[in-house]
Every structure is written in C-alpha cells, then in structure tokens.
Amino acid sequence: MQQLTRAEEEIMQKLWVLEKAHVKQVLELMPEPKPAYNTVSTIIRILEKKGVVGHEVTGKSHLYFPLLKKEEYKKQSLKQLIHGYFEGSFSKMASFFAKEEDLSTEEVDELLSHLKNNIKEKK
C-alpha cells in the first residue's frame, strides 16, 4: 500500500466518517480556511488512481467512497512509523512515548492492561 500525503489523509479521514459522499460534502467537513472545490476534487481523483477510493455515478456527479479501511491504513502507517523511527521495535516506541508524553502511573497501568488483554485474546 502506498503512503498517503497529508492532504490525501485529510480527505480520507472525511470519507471514512461520511462513508459515501460527493465532493461538496467532503468540502463541508474541511476546516477553515477551506481548500478550493477543485483541489478536493483533484485529491479525490488521485486517491482513486491509488486504488483507495472508488465512486459510483449519480446523475451528473460522482459519489465517492473509501475502498481502504481506516483500520488497515492505521495498522500499515503504524508499522511504517515503528520501522522508520524505532528500528522496528514496539517497545522502543512505547518507551519513547512514555518518556516524551510524561505518562502518569495510571496511564502506564492502563497501557499494560491493554497489552495484557491483547496477549490473552491472541492465545
């Protein structure tokens, strides 16, 4: 899967929320200052070429929908982050965030609880 640009990710975030939408509906969810209609339309067509967005024709317009599931993209992006910045080590990443975010004891305990639950589910 190709990595998406920041602008592409922003459009995908809107499509994941909307599930199916016209360009105008995507544009309505964009923060101020809103990009031009043509900019959003162009990015959506690029996403189609990348194979992560599809469309169906509705009258004279197109209704766009994500082909890529948010969970799939999240998983792939996180793997790339861990590989690129933490030598492929989840524990190095967790340690980095624990230090940088100055996690409280309660937050560390919650993280450990999530990890233990995930290990139990895998068994």
Portion of residues in helices? 55-70%
Provide a count of the helices: 6
Query: In whole angstroms, how far apart are the ends?
Result: 29 Å
Biggest pleated sheet = 2 strands, antiparallel
Percent of residues in β-strands:
5-15%
Low-confidence stretches: none
- Fourth-level CATH superfamily of the largest domain: Winged helix-like DNA-binding domain superfamily/Winged helix DNA-binding domain
Compressed to H and E, one letter per element, the order equals HHHEEHHH
Given the C-alpha coordinates, what overall shape results?
elongated
- As laid out across the biggest beta sheet, the strand order is 1-2
What is the CATH class name of the largest domain?
A: Mainly Alpha
How many individual domains?
2
> Given the helix and strand composition, which structural class is it?
mainly alpha
Mean pLDDT: 91
CATH fold naming of the largest domain: Arc Repressor Mutant, subunit A
Radius of gyration: 19 Å
**Any idea what the CATH architecture of the largest domain is?**
Orthogonal Bundle
